[in-house]
Write a structure and sequence with these properties.
globular; binds flavin mononucleotide
Length: 188
């Protein structure tokens, strides 16, 4: 089964390498990858790399143009462009916006447009405040139709007691379950 996968990256810059690795794995399995960048992941240079390098790496994996504006993300639902959207990585910021129904980035626009046609969204959350300010948003979205989470764990419970990171190795399994409208388990 060849899928059209919307693959969205948010500004968890330290996990972009992992996200790109799994983007490539999905591409190598024959899926069509439609890359989507949040404004911040498309525009901010950090110690983990520049925005230009990120875009170059994405372009080496997929031939599709990168969606990096709200207007380019808007047709995703109406034109049925994606079978599934994976947000990998998803920040606490984007999670909060999705939970609150805020649509002001290409990623939140893509998700809103895609949910409009009742198709699944997979979230690979990586955030230091997952068990802090973001906990309520996990609670809300885990109970939201067509939204599924990649299993996650505490990456450094003693030094970062509120932090959770997605287990990227389970991204594909989570995607396959989500296509059947089921949450891959165990999620924690
Ligand atoms: C170097 C660096 C690393 C960051 N890592 C994370 C992270 O892992 N998780 C997270 O939720 N936010 C992280 N942030 C903060 C987000 O980039 C910030 O909240 C931003 O507004 C996210 O925008 P977006 O969700 O639209 O991509 C990081 C910021 C910087 C500068």
């Amino acid at each position: 089964m060849k899928l059209n996968i919307g693959y969205a990256l948010c500004g968890s810059f330290c996990t972009h390498d992992k996200a790109l690795k799994y983007m490539r794995i999905l591409k190598d399995k024959g899926h069509n990858i439609i890359p989507i960048l949040s404004f911040n992941s498309a525009g901010i240079d950090t110690r983990f790399g520049t925005a230009a390098q990120l875009k170059e790496q994405i372009s080496l994996i997929t031939d599709n143009p990168i969606i990096e504006t709200i207007e380019d993300a808007e047709p995703i639902g109406p034109k049925q462009m994606c079978d599934i959207i994976i947000i990998s990585p998803c920040t606490g910021n984007t999670l909060g916006k999705l939970s609150a129904g805020i649509t002001d980035t290409p990623v939140t626009m893509a998700v809103k447009s895609h949910l409009r046609i009742n198709r699944p969204v997979v979230i690979a959350l990586c955030t230091n405040d997952a068990l802090g300010a973001s906990a309520q948003n996990i609670g809300k979205l885990i109970n939201t139709k067509n939204v599924f989470f990649v299993p996650m764990h505490q990456d450094d419970p003693h030094r970062k007691p509120h932090s959770l990171v997605a287990n990227f190795d389970l991204l594909e399994d989570t995607m396959l379950s989500a296509l059947e409208k089921a949450q891959f388990q165990p999620v924690f």
